[in-house]
Design goal:
The complex is a heterodimer of chains A (970) and B (88). Chain A is built from 24 helices and 50 strands. Chain A is α+β, with helices and mostly antiparallel strands. Among the domains of chain A are: 4-121, 2Fe-2S iron-sulphur cluster binding domain, sarcosine oxidase, alpha subunit, N-terminal domain (Ubiquitin-like (UB roll)), CATH 3.10.20.440; 159-283 and 406-481, FAD/NAD(P)-binding domain (3-Layer(bba) Sandwich), CATH 3.50.50; 493-559, BFD-like [2Fe-2S]-binding domain (Arc Repressor Mutant, subunit A), CATH 1.10.10.1100; 644-732, Alpha-Beta Plaits (2-Layer Sandwich), CATH 3.30.70.1400. In chain A, helix 5 packs parallel to helix 7 (213-226) and helix 5 (177-188) runs parallel beside helix 11. Chain A is elongated and about 115 Å long. Chain B is mainly beta. Chain B contains one helix and six strands. In chain B, 10% of the residues lie in helices and 36% in strands. Classes of the chains: A alpha+beta (970), B mainly beta (88). Chains A and B meet through helix 20 of A and helix 1 of B.
Chain lengths: 970, 88
């Protein structure tokens, strides 16, 4: 096959005045503006484009569009390299770099092509059968290396992607004559209409064919524009989702912008449309014959389009293999373009259609039994299709075209829930009626006659614009076609799925092994599972399945067509949600202050918080030890602003809180605060916190920093859905209030020096109380509470004022030997006190009784959330895991978090696990918390802790480790 | 992605909402049997057809409401308040 350019007017897409240079596999080549990479390669005589997925067979360009199974290339270089791009869709631009996929060292000499020699050993499902011993995982890495397609860059994508939402009354997909007619009619009827085409310009096949109909579609396009139809070009509708959400990928080719890094590459359109009209055309169904995958075998309509639109003759001497009328039209078109058609081989018996082609050699009742040439086609052998009546004959040619009839692009119709029916005389699946949201027009509806398509689409556009029922499609005009496409009893592989190397014999094997469902066939043979999703192979595969199992294609049915219709990049779907926008972090308003103190920031939940403030040369662990020790000795300052905060108002607020929390809160005096556990209806601990009463109908609720979203969601759900008669308002105020926690024996002295109200002094303000007060006109809500076990003040204040207060306190810190402390020190302090951290010490099975809150429940009257679940036999099982304090027997070895507690080394039934573990600066030894079966009954017992093969002896001891009498909180 | 008619804000994309599952569950009293409590916690109908369920417009007005949705077609037949009776 030696490609060459044809004279104008052929090449309607080209601007021959603009020559464009590009590179393929390191070779400099050139084409014209308007060329695709595929058309430019064909024009340059490049036939061998890539190697196949499994067998590494040489492959070329097979189609002229989105259905391309074999012409896959990696485009771009460095971080912008895009793998597995279809050469048929890539528009060339100056400086384009492309390379073949799945070959090493080169596409011409590919070592793994040895696979092809062993292809008899690699049938469908070979890996299920062959690699059973010692296990698939042993073989998988090397098989994965051999199989596959392009390579991703492995670097961060520097380009940009964006997402746009739009609404339309009528959305039309496809801008051929049907789509244009529908859009014009809808707009004329007054509907806000969008028209999407994956091409660079509207017009469809009439638009690129040199001839009188070009003007007709150009006029329609002009009419649509005048009516205000919004036209989106280079925009591929890839999915239709619930309630008519149409998603489409607009590609912005490098040629239209600077090809520099950071350009906008693709745009995701999300169009909510009242009605959708699919006018997506049809694909061509290939013929099956031995070696039908050779470079130089391609779809007939593709060769026609290359000639008409791109002015490329894909070969000099052509043989057309057909079982449909469409092959005759292609023959006529190619001959008119000056291309030599050596013969048309029609599998069907003689008919009068032959008379339309004077001078063309037509051999009916015949098929190809052999293709000569490996990396290009040199000829083929013709035999009788039924084995009789025709003497085998070799015909020299350099291009074999495949015309197996049409396959309407029914993808969107089936995505929308539509059914299909098989039409026998033209051997195709067409939509069975319309779906409520989407109607089909033109070839994708099975309407191939041009005037019928235009007329029906016009009626459809008008009806849907007016909210009327969609008129039925006048299916027809495709000519006659045979379902049967393969040649029995000949040597050589007849490929059904060119991309995944699935041959007729593989489908036969699947049938023989009793895979009868088309869904099983697909998964077992992998047919239709490539990046092309079987656009050229699905119909042949299920027709074959029908032949092998004695069923009609309509009985075999099709697999479900799922979105996306064509491969979409991950970047398109992700859009701008990358980097810092992937999961936006919440930041402390005093972040700069912490940074200036040398804070080591880590992410805790969605918050970026200081883990510790290491001094020069100090490790994180050492810093946390130093900070925790300072809090016990003098005082420390923690930025607790992320602490969850809710205000609860209303006449029924107290009653509501009794229903939400394990503890009783309604009998608190104003100013009093209590610890509360929040459960779900299964009785499982969801969160904990402190509730303070600010007034008769006003409460302040602290949740954990990580638990605020789930806690406030639970409050709203119970309030709105179950306790609907209660008059209560729940207001999340986390970001409104900053929180600075000052803890340690010097805490009050420090605050007093800073000018805090003497009413807050520990002698006057009891532990677990809250006071509203002011400091220099700034409102404060000060809670005396402690998560460290030391005298502690949680100072809540308007968030904007927190930075100033930190500065004010910090100026006095040297006087008291005070330090800032981070989350790591806080965890040490609370573990020393035996305080739980919900989600660390508890999990999705922990009930309040398991962590020492059994008695609080017995005393309470309200049917609070989760209470009934605590009465079940499972909840009262004495063998449950219970919170315990653990010390290593040697007082030296830290117990690893997650280590299992068991009498024997694993694998064995375990008795529990370690949940929190730190070195205690106060005790000078490691301390830990854990959950242990019957833990509360096992004080003083020795247990064995197992960790990665090692065993550590530990003792169950009494908590807390520090200040058991709570003297420091008085 | 469904387009859900919030009774307060109008139709919005599904990703502004969370689904809270079957609606009109009767929360039993404390003194019911374990079987009754277990059925309330765990056992749900999974109809092919109309399902009454509750949704929250969490990235919007924050309000819970009921919806009658066809689980087969995703058609939302009606939306109504949490305190409204079961529609006929």
């Amino acid at each position: 096959m030696t490609g060459r350019r044809l004279q104008e007017p052929l090449g309607t897409r080209l601007d021959r005045a603009r020559r464009i240079g590009f590179e393929f596999n390191g070779r400099p080549l050139s084409g014209f503006a308007g060329d695709t990479l595929a058309s430019a390669l064909l024009a340059n005589g490049v036939q061998l484009v890539g190697r196949s997925f499994k067998l590494h067979r040489p492959r070329g360009i097979f189609s002229c569009g989105v259905e391309e199974p074999t012409g896959l290339v990696d485009v771009g270089a460095g971080a912008q390299r895009t793998p597995n791009t279809r050469a048929t869709l890539v528009e060339i631009h100056e400086g384009l770099i492309a390379s073949s996929v799945n070959c090493w060292p080169s596409v011409g000499f590919d070592l793994a092509a040895l696979n092809n020699g062993f292809s008899a050993l690699l049938p469908a499902g070979f890996y299920y059968k062959t690699f059973k011993w010692p296990g698939w995982r042993v073989f998988e890495p090397s098989i994965r290396r051999l199989a596959g397609l392009g390579r991703a860059s492995g670097e961060r994508d520097p380009d940009r992607y964006e997402e746009l939402s739009a609404a339309a009354e009528v959305a039309v997909i496809g801008a051929g004559i049907a789509g244009l007619s529908a859009a014009v009619a809808a707009a004329e009827a007054g509907a806000a209409t969008v028209l999407l085409t994956s091409s660079a310009a509207p017009g469809g096949s009439l638009g690129w064919r040199a001839g009188p109909d070009r003007q007709r579609v150009a006029d329609l396009a002009a009419r649509a524009a005048a009516l205000g139809v919004k036209l989106l070009t280079r925009t591929m509708a890839f999915g239709i989702y619930d309630h008519n959400l149409l998603c489409a990928a607009e590609s912005l080719p490098a040629g239209t912008q600077a090809a520099s890094a950071g350009r906008l590459r693709e745009r995701l359109w999300k169009i909510r449309a009242r009605a959708v009209i699919a006018a997506t055309g049809a694909f061509e169904r290939p013929m099956l014959f031995p070696d039908n995958d050779r470079p130089g075998v391609m779809l007939a309509a593709a060769a026609d389009k290359y000639a008409q639109a791109y002015g490329v003759a894909c070969g000099g001497r052509v043989v057309i293999a057909a079982n449909s009328d469409s092959g005759y039209a292609v023959a006529a078109s190619l001959r008119a373009a000056g291309i030599d058609v050596a013969a048309l081989i029609d599998r069907r018996p003689p008919s009068d259609i032959a008379a339309s082609q004077p001078g063309l050699r037509i051999i009916t009742g015949a098929a190809i039994s052999r293709v000569f040439g490996r990396r290009s086609v040199r000829g083929c052998t013709i035999v009788a299709a039924d084995g009789q009546g025709i003497r085998p004959e070799r015909i020299d040619c350099d291009l074999i075209l495949s015309a197996g009839g049409h396959a309407p692009a029914v993808h969107l119709h089936t995505q929308a829930g539509g059914r299909l029916r098989w039409v026998d005389d033209c051997a195709m699946f067409v939509p069975e009626g319309h779906t409520p949201g989407l109607a089909s027009a033109g070839a994708c509806a099975g309407v191939f006659a041009m005037e019928d398509a235009a007329g029906h689409a016009t009626e459809l556009g008008r009806a849907l614009a007016r909210g009327q029922a969609a008129p039925a499609a006048p299916v027809g005009g495709a000519g006659r076609s045979l379902a049967a496409a393969y040649m029995p009893n000949v040597r050589g592989k007849q490929f059904v799925d060119l991309q995944n190397d699935v041959a007729v014999s593989d489908v036969g094997l699947a049938a023989q092994e009793n895979f009868r469902s088309v869904e099983h066939l697909k998964r077992y043979t992998t047919t239709g599972m490539g990046t092309d999703q079987g656009k050229t192979s699905n119909v042949n595969a299920l027709v074959l399945m029908g032949e092998f199992t004695g069923r009609h294609p309509g009985q075999v049915g099709t697999t479900r067509f799922r979105p996306p219709f064509a491969p979409t990049s991950v970047g398109l779907l992700v859009g701008r949600r990358v980097g810092e926008l992937y999961r936006p972090l919440k930041r402390l308003s005093a972040e700069d202050w912490h940074a200036a103190r040398g804070a080591l920031f880590e992410n805790f939940g969605n918050w970026r918080r200081p883990a510790a403030y290491p001094l020069a040369g100090e490790s994180l662990d050492a810093a946390a030890q130093r900070e925790a020790a300072a809090v016990r000795r003098t005082a420390g300052l923690l930025d607790g602003s992320p602490l969850g905060k809710l205000e609860i108002f209303g006449p029924d607020a107290a009653e509501f809180l009794d229903l939400m929390y394990v503890g009783t809160l309604s009998n608190m005096r104003i100013g009093q605060a209590r610890y509360g556990l929040l459960l779900n209806e299964h009785g499982v601990v969801m969160d904990d916190g402190i509730v303070a009463r600010l007034g008769a109908q006003r409460f302040w609720v602290n949740t954990t920093s990580a638990g605020i979203e789930r806690s406030s969601a639970a409050f709203e759900e119970w309030l709105q859905c179950e306790f609907t008669s209660l008059k209560v308002l729940v207001t999340p105020v986390t970001s409104r209030w900053g929180n600075l926690t000052v803890a340690g024996p010097e805490a009050w002295n420090w605050l007093a020096a800073a000018g805090f109200d003497p009413a807050l002094a520990p002698q006057r303000m009891a532990h677990m109380t809250m006071q509203e007060c002011e400091l220099d006109g700034v409102e404060l809500r000060v809670l005396r509470a402690s998560f460290s076990g030391e005298l502690g003040y949680e100072i809540n204040l308007p968030d904007a004022a927190s930075h100033a207060l930190i500065e004010r306190l910090w100026a006095l810190a040297p006087r008291f030997g005070a330090v800032p402390y981070g989350i790591e020190a806080l965890e040490i302090l609370r573990t020393e006190k035996g305080y739980i951290h919900v989600g660390t010490d508890t999990d999705g099975t922990t009930l309040p009784g398991d962590i020492g809150f059994g008695r609080a429940i017995e005393r309470k009257a309200a049917n609070f959330v989760g209470r009934r679940s605590l009465l079940t036999p499972a909840a009262r099982d004495p063998g449950r895991l219970q919170l315990v304090a653990l010390l290593p027997t040697d007082r030296r070895t830290r117990l690893p978090v997650g280590a299992q507690i068991a009498a024997r080394p694993p694998p064995t039934l375990t008795e529990g696990h370690v949940t929190s573990s730190y070195h205690s600066p106060e005790l000078g030894m490691p301390v830990a918390l854990g959950m242990l079966a019957r833990g509360s009954q096992r004080l003083g017992e020795r247990v064995r802790v197992h960790h990665l093969g090692s065993r550590i002896e530990a003792e169950v001891v009494k908590a807390p480790f520090v200040d058991p009498a709570g003297e420091r909180l008085k | 992605m469904m387009h859900i008619p919030c009774p307060w804000c109008g139709a919005r994309d599904e990703n502004e909402f969370v689904c809270g599952g079957t609606s009109h569950l009767q929360r039993p009293a404390l003194d019911v049997s374990d079987e009754v409590w277990g059925a309330y916690l765990f056992f749900r109908d999974n109809p092919k057809g109309v399902h009454l369920e509750r949704w929250r417009h969490v990235h919007g007005c924050g309000q819970w409401f009921n919806a009658a949705r066809n689980t087969l077609t995703h058609e939302i037949l009606s939306v109504y308040r949490m305190t409204d009776p079961v529609p006929q």
